Here is the input.
Amino acid sequence: MTRIEAEKAQPVVQASDLEKDERWQLVMRVTGSPAFARSSRLPDLLLYLCERSLQGQDLLLTEQRIAAEVFERTRSFDPTADTIVRSHMLRLRQKLEAYFKEEGAKERLRILIPRGSYVPVFEAVSDLQLGSEAKPASAEPVAAPEKTSEKNAVTALEASRRRLRMISAGLLVACLGLLATLLTGSGREGGVALQLQPMQRGRTALWSSMFPGKSPTLLIAADSGLVMLHGLTGQNSSLSDYMDRNFDRQLAGTKLPRNVVLDVASRRYTSFVDLELFDRLTHAPGVRPGGYSIRYARDVHANDLKNANVILSGSQDANPWIELFEPQMNFVLHNDLEKGERGFLNHAPQAGELPYYQSSAYEYGLLAYMPNLSGSGNALLIEGTAVAGTEAISDFLFEDSDFEPFLEKIMRKDGTLPHFEILLRSRSLDGSASHSEIVAYRTH
Here is the structure.
């Protein structure tokens, strides 16, 4: 049976029977897993897609309707300008793949969402696919889940409903606060002041400091052509080399034709993870068109990092401007191309911390919220030992449920945030990051 045939063959379930259906119970296990529990949006998206599909409402699964019912977009939603649905669908497919490779590896059903579609497909897994440790189908049939599974599914469903009610209540309070502010005419320069729920305060404080509205915030994309140069020559570049476009030192160690290497280095490449990160940043709460400017690393000048708020993506070898911030940082990337060694140095280890976090079993990512070079604004550095490390930071920044409690913990009494560094680790699955955890942090 083809995937399309399997999709069409999926039986329709009445709402009253949903909790008893094996497929819905699988959805509950997936959305209740640690990888999904750390995301504020992906569980709701998967629940919505699967509930509609299982109830025979595939035709309702359109980008416009998903944007309205899951992401609270209005009727004026323009998918060409706002890619929130597509970016979250990409993350959802990656999270599903990670779940069924890790904690859900022994599940007898898989949830797939084919590219170009919003309709989930439930596929049975054979014993051969499960491996030698899988139990025979006759011993544990998928179609006859135990009562405990039904009980867990009901509990998870209630938890999901409570989460949705909490989100709805938070939105209602925010809307009432906005209405009251508009009626009284009070507000701050660059935006309206809202009475926000505690669960929103930390991230909102971060975004308001990075996108104050007074002047455009610079989003500086990594130079992947520079990384390719380093791979060909086996030599890193300093910021001085990069600014002067002088790579004689790197070329001295390679036998490749000079013109070929320089041609590679001259090309304007950046990673898809950086593009997705910038898409998320430009749709963060309070960010308005005209409030940011996207620049390529080689088009930036030192004065730009003094006169504006800046966000730099990619590691120091892909975005050499990070070098200017390193003297004030505790966690600094170490990249030894000759030894093939890469990780973060911990300049002042505290109890229980390592002096060096080397990339091997884990990939590491650093989120650093620092002053800009003149101290007149702020800089946000998103740096990883690999693409997966940068991706882990992106997920943590926008979706991870651990980030808001961290911000609440360090927030000052006046509601502002101190500068900080967070070092995360995650496993890489086919180049994508699994769920991450904080291994160390500093506040300044």
In short: The chain has 17 helices and 14 strands. Residues 147-184 form the longest helix (38 residues). Residues 205-223+270-443 form a domain with the Chitobiase; domain 2 fold (CATH 3.30.379). The radius of gyration is 24 Å.
